[in-house]
Design brief:
The chain is mainly α. It has two domains: about 45 residues; about 190 residues, MetI-like (MetI-like fold), CATH 1.10.3720.10. The protein has 13 helices and four strands. A two-stranded antiparallel ribbon has the order 1-2. Strands 3-4 form a two-stranded antiparallel ribbon. The protein is globular, with a radius of gyration of 24 Å.
Length: about 300
């Protein structure tokens, strides 16, 4: 479906749209099956809840330790590859090292890092502000958007949403790529930020607020002096989650940015499919790649042939 969506033949766009709808229906069906299984385990067949103790010895800690070790070991190996000029099999370590890969790409690293951080900060800050307003509005007026509606961007495949989002941007201003990328990151980061604050906001003791209001303090002063210091760790944690979600967005950046907005994630994905693993660590910051044929160019003004 992604190939149909990027194909220059416009006759394939209806096929891509139909594929997005089919993908959405399959995802909703699987979510319904999972919900049915959950209901069957917790409500339909409840004998296991009162039939006595029953446990299964699962290798949870050992499996987690192995996965954690493999994940951590990838970082130094990738770092070593970036300095390796010659590493022949079956040598344990490279036979020759070089800094030329870092020197070649270091001049272009700053722009991509700055753009990625700016987009992440804008999207996460807006998502945090909207989440705070939504929680406060729920407490004051007892009205909220259902949780399953907020979780839609987390559960539904991104291609099913991005196709409609891109069509919507064409009716407003299709050339404002930076704005639309920030909007897409906000759309996908907001559910994570909102759900991260849901637990702390529900556990907050509202009697503290009522006591402060009864002493003559204004609602804004109570929120800044009492509620904010108590919930500040949760707010910072949700903000960090929003930043991490924004930095990890690949398809929203690629689709709504139209290849003109590059981030660390888009460049890293393009280079991860390349032939030289020595540039995987750092050249996501520098070189521009064509995502359709994997060729590269130094200037975005040069089009792929």
């Amino acid at each position: 479906m992604w190939q149909w969506f990027n194909d220059p033949d416009l006759a394939l766009l209806p096929r891509a749209s139909a594929g997005a709808v089919v993908l959405l229906m399959i995802s909703l069906m699987l979510i319904g099956v999972a919900r049915l299984i959950e209901w069957g385990v917790t409500q339909g067949f409840r004998r296991w809840q009162y039939s006595g103790r029953c446990g299964f010895a699962l290798p949870g800690k050992s499996v987690f330790a192995v996965l954690l070790t493999l994940s951590v070991a990838m970082v130094p190996i990738t770092l070593l590859w970036s300095f390796a000029q010659r590493w022949r099999f079956p040598d344990l370590l490279p036979s020759r090292y070089s800094l030329r890969f870092w020197e070649y790409e270091w001049s272009s690293i700053v722009g991509t890092i700055e753009q990625s951080i700016v987009i992440a900060l804008i999207a996460s800050t807006l998502a945090l502000g909207l989440a705070l307003l939504a929680h406060e509005y729920r407490l004051r007026h007892r009205v909220q958007i259902p949780g399953y509606v907020i979780a839609v961007p987390m559960l539904v495949p991104q291609l099913s949403i991005l196709f409609g989002m891109q069509v919507a941007t064409l009716y407003v201003a299709g050339d404002a790529h930076f704005f639309w990328v920030c909007w897409a990151h906000l759309f996908f980061a907001f559910p994570y930020v909102y759900l991260s604050l849901d637990g702390p906001w529900r556990s907050y003791d509202e009697r503290l607020t009522r006591a402060a209001l009864s002493l003559g303090k204004s609602p804004l002063n109570v929120w800044l002096r009492i509620k904010l210091p108590i919930l500040l760790p949760a707010i910072l944690y949700a903000w960090a989650i929003g930043i991490s979600v924004s930095l990890a967005q690949y398809l929203p950046t690629l689709v709504l940015g139209a290849g003109r907005i590059t981030t660390l994630t888009t460049e890293a994905v393009a280079l991860s499919s390349g032939f030289d693993r020595r540039v995987t660590l750092f050249t996501p910051f520098g070189r521009r790649y064509c995502h359709s044929c994997s060729s590269h160019w130094r200037s975005l003004s040069v089009t792929c042939r």
